[in-house]
Amino acid sequence: MSKKYTWSAAVALAAFAAIVIGCATGIRARSQESTALPAASWGLSFQTEGQPPVGNVSQSVLDGYDAAFLGDTTQPVIYLTFDAGYENGYTEKILDVLKTHEAPAAFFVVGNYVEQNPELVRRMVADGHIVGNHTYHHKDMPSISDEAAFAQELTSLEELYYETTGEQMSKYYRPPRGEYSEENLKQAQKLGYKTVFWSLAYVDWYQDDQPSAEEAFSKLIPRIHNGAVVLLHSTSSTNAEILDELLRKWEDMGYRFGTLEELFSGSAESR
């Protein structure tokens, strides 16, 4: 074989090897990227009526960060959670209804809520509900890269809560607007918190554009499912008006209401 053809073959072989190495490197990179959680807003895809939705992160992945959006899907249990960013007169009625149904709930509060509504916060505690951490200032948490600044958003609310109630705040955290990153989940976990997302919610937070009762029921009844973590806003006049009937409807469907302690005590395999 001539030197010319030997050289050509060597060049071709080297080029082929470079392509193979490049493809392998790309595959490894994509594989590494797929295991990381990008900064995102929590989202759900409802695919089958009466069945749990698909989250934009699976529950099995969230388990590794002490986070959950779904409970035991083999059990007819619902976990009621309320986000409380401010008070406009509906929380007391919501608490009355919860008491009537003996339904435990978790209220995720921010700093100004505790400052301006200490009596309501104390009533939440007295009624046996969990008061969770929604951060002090309701910031875009993934934008906070400094670990100390992230921690301050949670610990400053803990301190205010203790001053208000004389009790330590339960270590449950809900990211404002459901915005999260992998680093956020790790930081919350490092602080001893369990992050609580949700598997059922509807557009109930616009004070001047509240859904009708029929619109609310059309979302909340057919989409309920075993192990549902339900997010409602305590600022919603619709929620205050329909809550008694909503809980009765769910009870008539065979559901009971569980606590966040129960949510996180369930096995990952059953979610």
Radius of gyration: 24 Å
Amino- and carboxy-terminal Cα gap? 66 Å
Helix coverage percent? 40-55%
Give the biggest sheet: 5 strands, parallel
How many strand units? 12
Shape annotation: globular
Mean pLDDT: 88
- The residue ranges in which pLDDT falls below 50 over 5 or more consecutive positions are 1-34
**Structural class by SSE content:** alpha/beta
Explain what this protein looks like in three dimensions.
- The protein is α/β, with parallel strands linked by helices.
- The chain is 45% helix and 15% strand.
- The chain is built from ten helices and twelve strands.
- Strand 2 and strand 3 form a beta hairpin.
Question: What's this entry about, in short?
Answer:
By secondary structure, the protein is of the alpha/beta class. The chain has helices at 3-35, 59-63, 91-101, 111-116, 118-126, 147-165, 182-190, 213-220, 237-252, 260-265, and strands at 40-41, 44-45, 54-55, 67-68, 77-84, 105-109, 130-133, 172-173, 179-180, 194-196, 228-233, 256-257.
Topology:
Blueprint: H1 3-35, E1 40-41, E2 44-45, E3 54-55, H2 59-63, E4 67-68, E5 77-84, H3 91-101, E6 105-109, H4 111-116, H5 118-126, E7 130-133, H6 147-165, E8 172-173, E9 179-180, H7 182-190, E10 194-196, H8 213-220, E11 228-233, H9 237-252, E12 256-257, H10 260-265
Parallel strand pairs: 4-10, 5-6, 5-11, 5-12, 6-7, 8-10
Antiparallel strand pairs: 1-9, 2-3
